Structures are given as structure tokens and as C-alpha cells.
Fold this sequence. Notes:
This protein is of the alpha+beta class and about 325 residues long. The chain is about 30% helix and about 20% strand. Strands 1-2-3-4-5 form a five-stranded antiparallel beta sheet.
Amino acid sequence: MSQIIDKVLEHLPKHRKTPSGWISFNAVCCHHRGEGADKRGRAGIIIDNHRISYSCFNCKFKASWRPGRTINFTFRKFLEWLGIDENVCRILILEALRLKDSVELEDDGYDEVYVPDFPKKELPNEVFVIPDAPDEIQEYAAQRHLPLNKVFWSNQRFFHMRRRIVIPFTWQDNIVGYTARAVDNNITPKYKMDSSPGYVYGVDLQEPKAKFAILTEGPLDAICINGIASLGNELNDNQVQLIDTLDREIILVPDRGIAGQTLIDRALETGYSVSFPEWEDDVKDVNDAVIKYGKLFTLYSILRAKHNNRLKINILRKKYK
């Protein structure tokens, strides 16, 4: 048995084992999902070849984990509802990451994968590649270290589109939205965005076998380091589930300032690592760091400054307020 399974068994409420191998007990999920509390033992877990699965036959909630997988959003909720301490949950998340590097995972068809369905959307009309844009747009893209194959420019007049960089949002080889970032500080809003709830920029652009993904708030930060972006200072549950599909360590690099504190709170809740690189005071985010230090040093400084310990994160976050 792994430490994770042992901890689940240790926190089970009063239960009984059925002849089929299920361990049955009153569901711990129902009252968290708008249902009445279960009093009929309608939930249970089954352990098969070190894989643990929880199913509720009342509210239909399911969660599972096995060695070689990270602990995803639904299993984290299950641990929480069992009453496992938040600090212990973080230790279990780290244990799952450790096992992931030492276990060869075979696809046995058991894993339930969250697959969102984002509707197709259109980019603004008259979109051009950056080399065909006006000189000042090209200069802005170069100064920001933006990859020319991932950003565009529109000749449309509405929303000052001629003075914006257009970043497409993609999913399963389709355009599912975009954001257009103003190149002038006096243009408001800074971002003109068309996106679906639950979308996270860059998830579909990650290397399949990478061991980590760097999470930022803004798309310019993500695009210059091949990371992912929350597109705001909050992460909803659907976004967390989408990030979980990457099945790797997630390292949050929060923006400096009050706005970044909300994402740090969410990172602590979800078990993400948080990085506090020792950049100079005029460097407010990842894109600023890439401009000043270059991509390789920025990545190095992020990885060097990542932390998993809740106490350490809460101490370091004070410098970002």
C-alpha cells in the first residue's frame, strides 16, 4: 500500500467490507454537492492493484488515484471531504509526484480524463502575421520577446485593434477565442478578450512528457516561456480540472502586488508549487523578467525559487503584497 492509500483508509468513517471487495460507508461528498447527507452507506472505495477508486451511488461523485498519476482535482476534494488535514494533503500531493517519477504507468483504460468542450470562435477580421504588421507593432512584439508564430495583428478599427497584439486561444486544433493586448498604456481596457469559462491558455501547447508546467496570470508571461496562463487572478474549478489533465507538477509564478495573492491562495488549496524568484524591484512579472534577463535565466530562477511548503510560501508571499 502507498502512503496515500494508507492515509485514506486511516480517515474512513465507520465502514464495512462487502463480499465483492468494496469498502462501504456513508458518502462524504453529498452534502458538499447540494444533496442531503447520506445515511444509508451509499458510497465506498475499492482498491485494486494499488489503485483506489471512490464512488458515490447517491450524488454520483467519483474520484480515483493510482501510482504514476498526480492527485487530481476530484481526488483532492475527496481527501478534503474525508477530513484529511490540508498540510497532510500537500504531503500526499508531493508523494504522488515522487511516485510518478519512479513508476512506469501503463494505459489500462481505467483513468477518467476531463475533456472540456470549448466552442469554436473567430479571430478578428483582417488578421495578419507580425512581419506584415506596422513597424511599431513589430517592435513591440520583439521587445516583449513574443514568438512570431503565436501572435498576430488585426487591421480592424474597433476596440483599437490596430494598436493591439492578438494572441489566439486554441484547443484540439481549433480557435476557441483570443485576447488582444494593447501596445499603448493609454488604451483601456488593456486586454480585449473573447474566451470561454474554464479555459486556460497554453495547456494544449505543453510538451507531452514535461515534468512541470509554469502557471502565470497573463498570456504574455506564459507565451514567452512556453507556460500556461489563468487569464486573470483567479482559477475556477473547471480551470483546475483542465490543468490537471497535464498530470505534472504545476509551478505558479504570481504577479507582484495584491492581485497575485488570490492565485497564491488557490495554489495552496490545490497543492501547486509557488515560485518567488529574486528579481529586481522593477521586474513585476515573468515577461518583465524575460525582457531583462532572457528566457533561460528566467526559467532557471523560477525553478530555483519554487517552494512546496505552506509555511515557507506564506512567509515569502508577504514580499509580494
